[in-house]
Amino acid sequence: MVLAIRLYVFILLILLFSSPKENDNKKITIQYNPTFNNQELVLENTKYCTINKDTITVTNFKFYISNLSLEFENGTTFKDPEKVHLIDAKSKESMHLKLNEIPNLKVKKVTFNIGIDSLTNVTSNLEADLDPRLGMYWAWNSGYINMKLEGKSNSCTSLKKDFQFHIGGYLPKQNALQTIQLSVQEKSNKIEIKVDINKWIGNIKLKETSGLMVPGGKAILMSNWYKNMFSSDEKE
Fold first, then answer.
1. CB-side exposure of 77: number of CA atoms within 13 Å?
2. Collapsing DSSP states into helix, strand and coil, what is residue 54?
3. For residues 60 and 197, is the Cβ–Cβ distance under 8 A?
4. What are phi and psi of 134, to 5 degrees?
5. How does pLDDT run across 173-221, given as a tens digit for each residue?
6. What does DSSP say about strands 178-183 and 190-196: parallel, antiparallel, or unpaired?
7. Mind listing the pLDDT tens digit for each residue in 143-186?
8. Angstrom distance (rounded) from CA 212 to CA 229
């Protein structure tokens, strides 16, 4: 009888220490995948046709992600201690956000801002991903560019047949910051978020508008268009 009890306790201890604990931590990678009409975005040499039938080549695509947080199935949340990330289509590494010390719970939703909030704009130490040398800072305007898209198209009326959209602004009547909340599927500690450029530039007729590089009402309108670029595999 005593032997059976000891065996039972031994098996119970093995199960207890080998099974996952809710309080254990894990690592998660959030991967942003720039696309065009569900195809992988290739810079420089690949031509794409927009919803407005403009044939374009994309040469530069960058945007800021800030204040990212995860919501778990039990309703608790995790806030990314790294407040700002610069996503650059020219850098594969930048498109993989690696989060550590995540509670061992299944992620239900991801929330993040596209761009830089007003407080960071005025208090930034201009380091790391906020370094002006990365090309996402308006020195003349003392503020950050939230989203940048550049390329070429014969539809453009500009001299070099290029388009440039630099969207930003943080003052009360110029605030182009957008907040995204996505239901997601976490697979093998990885979450994939698609960023489809055609859902933004498809709203623009390049014959009429081939550039925007100042804050204001038009920039806010653009930001409302490009927030629709972001989606996940999870159906709402």
1. 11
2. coil
3. no
4. -80, 0
5. 999 999 999 999 898 999 999 999 999 999 999 999 999 999 999 999 9
6. unpaired
7. 999 999 999 999 999 999 999 999 999 999 999 999 999 999 89
8. 18
